[in-house]
Design goal:
alpha+beta; five-stranded mixed beta sheet; 6 helices
């Protein structure tokens, strides 16, 4: 009987020890979870002190904001080591002030872990050196602000930070530069005219309009060779071209226009081509070869181009005769001669051919509108004549182009 009671008491004791062991393990596990390390409380270069009794930004959040791996945040982090927040500001200078404006942020969101809080205000940082901000202003929850009492003609650099109610702060925004100036210096010429802020004395130091176009050094035009020509190019003595045939007949012929304006081709004979355009030359040669051959194709390619001699006379800087490319125009010849002198006209330049005025050219259309429609291709023996300048008038004051202008058509009294 006593043995049975002893065995029962022994079993009860084992059960009690077992329950006590399980309870002890449970308590130890609970204590280990309760002793989790707290996050660091320092935010580098923050303008604000963290509020006591509230949880701070964990190290993972700081890592996402600052863009670098950290175990413990350092005391100071340079601006170059930060990732600029993806928002920008604009700056408009005034007289001893600068107006700043920016797109407001609704929330600050940081991943890892995700933190999203409403923005409650902004801090403006500025100074006279890039990245060196000596002044800061807490402007609250606004999207524009005027910074006053700045020095005119001094460059200032501005940037922003946003913060929340729990003093979580973004990195710097992008940096902008502005230079305050006096009110008069910020006005355009047109604004000054409409404000009746006209100068007391009008300058009469005027120059003749358009003549500076030809101030480049005088030079002749070297002959241009091996360039494509248009269908309106006029064939003349000295031009060379190649004629190629293929099909039932194969052949290639080099031709040069002689002094009489003629070329000589095998079996075809002598052909007069002086005065034909390049497109007319192709049709003419095809017609002549078709009289002797059937079932063939033909191609004509211009070779070396001839040079021509033209005369530039009258009121020009360097009158004389000039050897130019056969592709040259009246404008090319004027540039070769240094252009009209200031005694010469820009509005009635004459191209003379065979004793007759072929065209009168007004350079004002080219100078004011870039219109080259009056330019004419010159031929050998042409004369370009620049007469004496016509009536002139001077325009001074608050105008776009103060100068001395030539009047083309003088009204009759």
């Amino acid at each position: 009987m006593k043995n049975v009671e002893f065995m029962k008491s022994r079993r009860t004791l084992k059960k009690n020890f077992l329950f006590f062991g399980v309870f002890l393990i449970f308590v130890m596990i609970s204590l280990s979870f309760a002793q989790e390390p707290s996050a660091p409380s320092h935010f580098p270069e923050s303008t604000f002190e963290p509020q006591r009794g509230r949880s701070e930004i964990p190290a993972e959040a700081l890592k996402a904001i600052r863009g670098k791996e950290i175990e413990e945040p350092p005391e100071e982090v340079s601006l170059e080591e930060r990732v600029l927040f993806p928002w920008s500001i604009s700056a408009t200078p005034g007289d001893t002030f600068v107006d700043l404006s920016w797109t407001p942020l609704k929330t600050i969101r940081v991943e890892g872990p995700i933190i999203e809080e409403k923005v409650s205000g902004y801090v403006i940082f500025y100074g006279t050196g890039s990245g060196n901000y000596t002044e800061r202003i807490d402007v609250g929850d606004v999207s524009r602000y005027r910074i006053r009492n700045l020095k005119n003609y001094t460059p200032y650099f501005f940037t922003l930070k946003a913060y929340t109610k729990t003093r979580k702060v973004t990195p710097f925004s992008t940096e902008v530069k502005a230079v305050p100036k006096p009110r008069e210096a910020l006005k355009s010429t047109i604004e000054s005219v409409f404000s009746e802020e006209l100068p007391q004395a009008i300058s009469k130091d005027l120059e003749q309009f358009g003549y500076n176009l030809f101030r480049a050094a005088v030079s002749t035009f070297a002959p241009v060779t091996d360039v494509p020509v248009g269908p309106d190019y006029v064939i003349g003595p000295g031009d060379r071209f190649d004629v190629t045939l293929w099909g039932r007949i194969e052949g290639s012929y080099a031709a040069e226009v002689d002094r009489n304006g003629e070329i000589t081709l095998p079996k075809v004979g002598t052909l007069k081509v002086w005065g034909l355009t390049f497109s007319e030359l192709k049709d003419y040669l095809l017609s002549e070869f078709s009289k002797h051959y059937k079932g063939f194709y033909m191609n004509v390619v211009m070779g070396e181009l001839r040079t021509i001699r033209v005369y530039v006379v009258g009121e020009v800087v360097t009158p004389g005769s000039y050897t130019l490319s056969s592709l040259s125009s009246v404008y090319n010849a004027l540039f070769a001669a240094g252009g009209p002198s200031k005694r010469g006209t820009l509005r009635n330049i004459q191209l003379i051919r065979n004793g007759k005025i072929l065209r009168s050219i007004d350079l004002y259309d080219f100078l004011l509108r870039g219109d080259k429609s009056q330019d004419e291709r010159v031929q050998s023996g042409d004369t370009i004549f620049v007469p004496i300048i016509g009536p002139v008038v001077g325009i001074a004051g608050n105008v776009m182009r103060p100068a001395i202008y030539e009047i083309k058509n003088t009204p009759s009294p």
